[in-house]
């Protein structure tokens, strides 16, 4: 699978820029990268996202243990590779039918949380269990969500093309030809959240993991892109980005339930 996004959607990470500048090597533009993928992976499906990006996938050389899937709905596009071991329980949690597969589940979970404040869409990553990697693009907000499982069992790489686009692919050799040395394995258990028109700040509870998260100003837009490498998946709550352990999440959930109960009692008394 292959996803390529322009600087209007997400800014490239500084680490990849520095890696490419140390040892300059030939690169190609994003359009040529996409054409090489379509030519080498035929039959393939490609989705042009205007000037914002391009998605493509193929079942060629697909592993039976990590099938590739694609789905699109309500201007949300998602490429998914792998398997969720808790798919059955997640279907029930999000009210989906038994026919819903992994890529549909990720899209519906993302959409449900996108439209339900105060939880950010990436909140649903804490619920996913299995071996997977996915690339999701939300055209309505011009934002992306890219993630891999904590063990990194499904290969995923990212790099920078000659025209400054950020590319994600499961094929290392494919990206080498277009990204040169500006290329690296995607971090295990990592995620990239690109949000346009919003500000995302990290507010760690103890500051111990501040080095895991950095904010980058997006080119030409009032927004930030957030890179997080903190396996297992952090849980995001409240204003900005708050990383909590699963134990802390249970405490927060208990506190939330207590607040709701108190409000309910107040309504009854009134």
TrEMBL record:
DUF3700 domain residues are: 2-199
Q: Which residues form a coiled coil?
A: none
- Please name the Pfam families in this protein's record: DUF3700 (PF12481)
- PANTHER family the record matches: ALUMINUM INDUCED PROTEIN WITH YGL AND LRDR MOTIFS
Q: What is this protein called?
A: (wild Malaysian banana) hypothetical protein
* Record organism: Musa acuminata subsp. malaccensis
């Amino acid at each position: 699978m292959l996803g390529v996004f322009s600087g209007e959607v997400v800014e490239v990470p500084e680490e990849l820029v520095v890696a490419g500048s140390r040892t300059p090597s030939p690169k190609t533009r994003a359009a040529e990268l996409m054409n090489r993928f379509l030519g080498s992976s035929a039959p393939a499906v490609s989705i042009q996202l205007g000037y914002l990006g391009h998605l493509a996938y193929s079942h060629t050389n697909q592993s039976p243990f990590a099938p590739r899937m694609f789905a699109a709905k309500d201007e949300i596009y998602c490429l998914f590779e792998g398997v969720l071991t808790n798919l059955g329980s997640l279907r029930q949690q999000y009210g989906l039918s038994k026919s819903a597969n992994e890529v549909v589940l990720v899209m519906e979970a993302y959409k449900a949380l996108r439209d339900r404040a105060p939880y950010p869409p990436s909140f649903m990553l804490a619920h996913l269990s299995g071996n997977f990697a996915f690339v999701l693009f939300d055209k309505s907000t011009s934002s992306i969500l890219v993630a891999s499982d904590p063990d990194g069992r499904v290969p995923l790489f990212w790099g920078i093309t000659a025209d400054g686009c950020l590319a994600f692919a499961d094929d290392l050799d494919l990206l080498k030809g277009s990204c040169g040395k500006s290329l690296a394995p995607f971090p295990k258990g990592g995620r990239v959240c690109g949000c346009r028109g919003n500000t995302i700040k990290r507010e760690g509870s103890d500051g111990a993991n501040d080095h895991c998260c950095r904010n980058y100003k997006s080119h030409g837009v009032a927004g930030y892109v957030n890179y997080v490498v903190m396996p297992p998946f952090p849980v995001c709550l409240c204003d900005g980005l708050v990383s909590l352990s699963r134990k802390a999440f249970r405490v927060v959930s208990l506190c939330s339930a207590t607040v709701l109960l108190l409000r309910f009692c107040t309504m009854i008394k009134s």
